[in-house]
Design goal:
about 300 residues; alpha/beta; D-Maltodextrin-Binding Protein, domain 2; eight-stranded mixed sheet; two-stranded parallel sheet; 12 helices; about 20% strand
């Protein structure tokens, strides 16, 4: 009997120590709502195993358009967001759905199209001029049509060209699909589309009939700085959505912003593509500086 009591006491003390270190029998689960480009490019597969290891957790990734990711956050159905539509992200914070937004990384958008280039846009210096020529030639254009950050950027470019594409225009195809599926449709249909560079680089081997027609071969060579594409990370506000795992979400945000992980982001894809798929931090023309929050040291 005495041995059983001693054993039980030891087990209770051990359980208390483990709880104090943040260790649990079942790893905590973090819901990350993010744009399809972070998944289609392979970036999340590259980064997340390290975070799951150091934080003893499991990240459930929901890769959708940025609009859908923000809707999930606004309902409290996600813990943390990694998205790319700056105006919508600022509104998300203003509405109280997140306390802060942090610049995580950036790349740029490129106009991709058939190598035959039926709209004759190769060599043009801006997305606006390219879209004007595509509309003038009524060349097939594949739009994501999913309220994503890429879709929002596309619509902004059309607006700058004073063009409002509609479903009645036979050449304009609004798909309601993610970036990867939209690129595959463009390949099959010999269509133009707007893509983030990261997904394009990751998928170009599957797209033999397409090429970058406007945007240059590297981000530095993109003549249209309006096509820069910043990504922000936001922990969903527990004051408005009490069910979210705010502490774990902030651990993820701060881990993502830490110098070592920022270096990992900047090196992703360089060995295979000769250039990064994403660049760490804020783009040169970021509309506002990232909020200054020191990175937390996450330990297992």
């Amino acid at each position: 009997m005495k041995k059983n009591v001693v054993l039980l006491t030891i087990l209770v003390l051990l359980a208390g120590l483990l709880a104090g270190c943040g260790a649990t029998a079942e790893p905590a689960r973090l819901i990350l709502a993010t744009t399809t480009s972070t998944a289609d490019s392979g970036l999340l597969d590259y980064l997340l195993p390290e975070f799951e290891k150091v934080c003893n957790c499991k990240v459930d990734v929901i890769a959708v358009g940025t609009g859908q990711a923000l809707e999930m956050g606004a309902k409290g159905d996600a813990d943390v967001l990694l998205v790319h539509s700056r105006k919508s992200e600022d509104k998300f914070v203003a509405d109280g759905d997140a306390k802060e937004r942090f610049d995580a990384m950036y790349n740029d958008f490129v106009v991709v199209g058939p190598k035959e280039d039926p709209a004759n846009i190769a060599g043009l210096k801006s997305g606006k001029d390219a879209f004007t020529a595509i509309a003038g030639a009524q060349a097939t254009f594949a739009s994501r049509g999913d309220k994503s950050g890429t879709n929002n950027k596309e619509l902004t470019v059309w607006s700058s060209a004073a063009i409002t594409p509609t479903a009645e225009m036979a050449w304009y195809k609004s798909l309601g699909q993610g970036m990867g599926d939209t690129l595959l449709f463009a390949q099959e249909s010999k269509a133009y589309t707007l893509s983030d560079r990261g997904t394009w680089l990751a998928m170009q081997d599957k797209l033999p009939d397409l090429t970058i027609v406007v945007g240059g071969e590297t981000l530095a060579g993109n003549p249209d700085q309006k096509l820069l594409n910043p990504y922000g990370v936001m922990a969903v506000n527990p004051d408005k959505h009490p069910g979210v795992k705010y502490d774990l979400a902030m651990q993820f945000a701060n881990w993502l912003l830490s110098p070592d992980v920022q270096e990992m982001i900047g090196g992703f894809g360089v060995d295979k593509y000769g250039q990064p798929l994403f660049y760490p931090g804020a783009p040169p023309s970021s509309p506002a500086p990232a909020a200054a929050t020191p990175a937390l040291k996450v330990s297992g």
